[in-house]
Design a protein that fits this description.
The chain is built from 11 helices and 30 strands. It is an alpha+beta fold and 472 residues long. It has 4 domains: 121 residues, no CATH class; 91 residues, no CATH class; 40 residues, no CATH class; 164 residues, Uracil-DNA Glycosylase, subunit E. It has a 7-stranded mixed sheet with strand order 22-24-23-26-29-28-27, sandwiched between helices. Strands 15-1-2-13-14-16 form a 6-stranded mixed sheet, with no helix packed on it. The N terminus is likely disordered.
Length: 472
């Protein structure tokens, strides 16, 4: 078991996400740098989840949780006067004078202020973002807002009675006496909290049982769709394996095994013992497809070629989004309940860009050497890769961005919202047309998966048989 660990000083390596049990209680799992994480989870921390979360990367798309007063009180601390506040960061919890609530809300709608969330109408608790009240001449402590700023007007008019801190939920673990020991500062929270230890041979461990648990119906519908469900009760489950209930990514291990283009990691099971869990649906070796391998005298794929971005959001993709190798990934897609994204696999029309150089080639480096029209020429020589991927996943609908469309049009017929690939017609839409055709694309995305089936869990005995058969 790996026990060497570097201990981060901040949340920089944290990842946290929601789960819900069979009674509708909401939990949060905190992942500490190593271990299984459900697909489509963005890097964040517990503090960013306890009051709600974003839907995409738009600042105006915050989804608040409808917390009651007892739950709110368990998440805030250290009340103080606004005059004593030294660090007005992006999001600040304030209690206002209810007699001036109307004026407060009007000021919070100004360009230099933002009302993020109402925590409690009864107690006048709000979260505001007044970062722009310091733009230009703010000092490093963020303690003195600009003279005519909205925040200064709120303070001078005594609209803000108190300022609160949000509790810190930083969790660390260390190895003592053959088991992990957790250290954290919070005393209580309205969520069941599980910590996934750094050592991924161990199960996530429950470290908080709430007195006033948040229920799933307190979450807005869009946020509710992103909650992973587990078929047991949190109050009776001290440890569990999230990979049994949600397809997860996982850091590479020495015992990882590739089966049929999928990567499996050996992880502990909730009930004891271990099994191989699907952690990457698309670990396809491009070498057999590469048209340039003989030109560059390659015997296998190396780091000399540029690895292009791809992303799998589900192990049952009904949507294939084909993009240019140079297309940028929208990280807002990592935090969305969008039906189309959540049911998709996103692939570049060329997964590797050949480059005969002895340095690690980044996409930005490749752009300087190989132009888009040259990528299209390479695609035509390697198009059997995308053709095989279409057969592998057999999507209900295909979507292409503008640059990928230019390459596809050079080989395939596109008519009446359909693309004909090797005699098989797939419903087809341009990425730019998703908005105007959303209802139809969502309908197609919601249809059953019809591609090749891949087991989510393989027992050790089954994996031994598969390995032996492959070696023979």
């Amino acid at each position: 078991m790996k026990i060497d660990k570097e201990y981060p000083a901040t949340h920089s390596m944290s990842t946290a996400w929601y789960v819900a049990d069979e009674d509708g209680n909401v939990g949060i799992i905190d992942y500490n740098e190593n271990g299984p994480v459900p697909w489509g989870i963005e890097q964040t921390c517990i503090e960013n989840l306890v009051f709600g979360h974003e839907e995409g990367d738009s600042p105006s798309s915050y989804l608040p949780i409808d917390l009651n007063e007892k739950q709110i009180c368990e998440l805030i601390e250290n009340p103080r006067s606004p005059i004593d506040e030294k660090e007005w960061y992006f999001d600040t919890i304030v209690q206002i004078d209810l007699a001036q609530e109307k004026d407060f809300i009007a000021l919070a709608k100004n360009p230099d202020a933002k009302l993020r969330q109402c925590l409690s109408k009864k107690y006048g608790l709000y979260i505001i973002d007044c970062y722009k009240s310091f733009v230009g001449k703010r000092d490093y402590t963020y303690s003195r807002p600009l003279k005519n700023s909205s925040l200064r007007k709120m303070i001078d008019a005594k609209m803000i009675i108190k300022v609160y801190s949000q509790k810190d939920f930083y969790i660390s673990d260390k190895w003592e006496n053959d088991h992990p020991v957790y250290e954290y500062d919070f005393d209580k929270a309205p969520f069941y909290i599980y910590a996934q230890p750094y050592w991924n041979k161990l199960l996530a461990e429950r470290i908080n049982i709430p007195e006033n648990p948040v229920k799933i119906d307190q979450l807005p519908v869009a946020l509710r769709k992103r909650v992973h469900r587990v078929p047991f009760k949190f109050n009776t489950c001290e440890h569990f394996q999230i990979a049994e209930y949600a397809t997860c990514s996982c850091t590479h291990n020495d015992n990882d095994t590739i089966v049929d283009g999928c990567r499996y990691s050996l992880l502990p099971k909730t009930s004891g013992g271990e099994a191989y869990f699907l952690v990457d649906l698309h670990e396809i070796n491009f070498f057999p497809y590469c048209s340039e391998k003989n030109k560059y005298h390659c015997e296998y794929c190396t780091n000399n070629c540029t690895q292009c971005y791809e992303h799998v959001f589900t192990d049952r993709p009904t949507v294939m989004i084909i993009v240019s190798p140079y297309s940028k990934f929208d990280y807002g897609d990592m935090e969305t309940s969008d039906i189309i994204i959540k049911n998709s696999i996103m692939l570049p029309f060329l997964p590797m860009i050949p480059r005969p150089f002895g340095i690690w080639p980044l996409i930005e480096d490749a752009k300087k050497v190989i132009k888009t029209n040259e990528l299209e020429t390479l695609y035509l020589r390697n198009s059997h890769y995308i053709e095989d991927m279409l057969r592998r996943y057999n999507p209900q609908v295909v979507i292409a961005d503008a640059k990928a469309l230019k390459a596809l049009e050079k080989k395939y017929s596109l008519k009446n919202n359909a693309i004909d690939v090797c005699g098989i017609k797939y419903p087809f839409f341009r990425k730019a047309d998703i908005k105007s055709n959303r209802a139809e694309i969502e309908r197609l995305a919601s249809l059953p998966y019809q591609g090749k089936e891949f087991p989510r869990m393989i027992s050790i005995e089954e994996m031994q048989e598969i390995t032996k058969k492959n070696n023979d």
